[in-house]
Amino acid sequence: MRNLYVVTHPEATHHVENLVGGWHDSALTSRGLADAQRAARAVRGRIPGDGGTVLFGSDLLRTRQTAEAVGELLGLETVFDPDLREQSYGSAEGTPAGTTPYQPPPANGDRMHHHDGNEGSETRFEWAGRAYRVLDRILATGARDMIVVTHGGTATYLIAAWIGMPLHAAGYVKFNVAPGSITHLREDDFYRDRQVVALSEVGHLG
To answer: How many domains would you assign to the chain?
Structure first.
């Protein structure tokens, strides 16, 4: 079997300061750092420890800090990949939430190519496309156990890609993935079915 563990970074400074996140390079808070250690221990408890494990992470500070906690416990080097970043909100990043123009995607129509009105921001098609591409690269390693440290929004598209949802059909998909959570995805050896074993587990957090 192949296992993919999607770990989302815990509480970061932009959460407590009520700032727009995205590519804003916020750090983990003291609570977030403690929860990163808890998540790392929880992941270590699921990995056999006999090799065959790879660790990937977003290159933003809050996810680097989380991935480093996991890597230290498992003795793994992290492959940092910018395609695992959260959606770019362009000129809105780092600003107080609700203070910049934002146009939500339409209820009907082309939600994937909709632009939110902030200069430099990504469409969902661009954002999800990154997640789909990076998952292909992670799977190409051939590892039995794969750990990915990313952001809550990006986790949705990693799950969608895992279960084979076509990119053009991902305009409405949204999984509730909490900060500091672990989502366990598995592919069996016989049918090659892709399972969502556990979604957004948070029992390990304080």
So the answer is: 1
